[in-house]
Structure formats: structure tokens, C-alpha cells
């Protein structure tokens, strides 16, 4: 990757993936687990309300999915820009 425009395109795509991942994580952990918890209290999942589930379990599962999705997307981005290992 000798070209500066390719370098900038790579990092721009990388930062976009990171930004989207952080927004999803924030919405699931802080949004659903704290801010929207009273609205989600009527929905039951696994014997408890959905807001409590997101605060205790859901945000962790979403985070794990985001880790694997990020790794998959970065491997694809690396191949597209010729910087794979």
C-alpha cells in the first residue's frame, strides 16, 4: 500500500467500522439497559424483563458478536487493500 489515498481509504473504512460498532454497543448496553429499561419492562424474556436482560446479559452477548464481526470485516478490508497477513 504505497499510495497515500489507499492508506487514507483503508483507515477511513477502519474508523467507520469502529464507529458503527461503538454505536451499536452503546445503544444495546446504555440505551436498552439503562435509558430505555422502563419502556422494556413489560416485555418478558427468560423469566425477567427485557431491560434487565439487556443490562445483565444482552449487552455482553452483543459485544461478543461485535468482536467476531469486527474481526471478519477487518480481514475482508485487509484483503481488499492488500495488507493481509
Give the CA-based shape.
Answer: elongated
> What is the strand arrangement across the widest sheet?
1-2
Structural domain count: 1
**How much helical structure, as a percent, in the residues?**
over 70%
- Overall structural class, as computed from helix and strand content, comes to mainly alpha
Radius of gyration: 18 Å
Q: Which parts are unreliable, with pLDDT below 50 for 5 consecutive residues or more?
A: none
Oligomeric grouping of the chains: single chain
Strand content: under 5%
**Topology order in helix (H) and strand (E) letters:** HHEEH
Strand elements, count: 2
Terminal Cα span: 13 Å
Number of distinct helices:
3
Please state the average pLDDT score: 88
Please outline the major beta sheet. Answer: 2 strands, antiparallel
Commentary on this structure:
This protein starts with a helix and ends with a helix. Strand 1 and strand 2 (about 50) form a beta hairpin. The mean pLDDT is about 90. The chain has helices at about 5-35, 35-40, 50-80; strands at about 45, 50. Strands 1-2 form a two-stranded antiparallel ribbon. The radius of gyration is 18 Å and the shape is elongated. It is about 80% helix and about 5% strand. The protein is mostly helical and about 80 residues long. It has one domain (about 15-80).
Q: What is the topological layout?
A:
Blueprint: H1 4-35, H2 37-40, E1 44-45, E2 48-49, H3 50-81
Antiparallel strand pairs: 1-2
Amino acid at each position: 500500500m504505497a499510495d497515500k489515498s489507499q492508506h487514507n481509504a483503508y483507515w477511513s473504512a477502519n474508523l467507520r467500522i469502529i464507529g458503527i460498532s461503538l454505536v451499536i454497543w452503546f445503544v444495546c448496553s446504555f440505551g436498552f439497559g439503562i435509558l430505555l429499561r422502563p419502556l422494556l419492562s413489560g416485555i418478558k424474556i427468560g423469566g425477567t424483563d427485557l431491560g434487565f436482560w439487556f443490562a445483565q446479559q444482552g449487552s455482553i452477548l452483543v459485544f461478543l458478536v461485535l468482536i467476531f464481526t469486527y474481526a471478519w470485516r477487518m480481514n475482508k478490508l485487509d484483503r481488499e487493500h492488500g495488507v493481509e497477513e
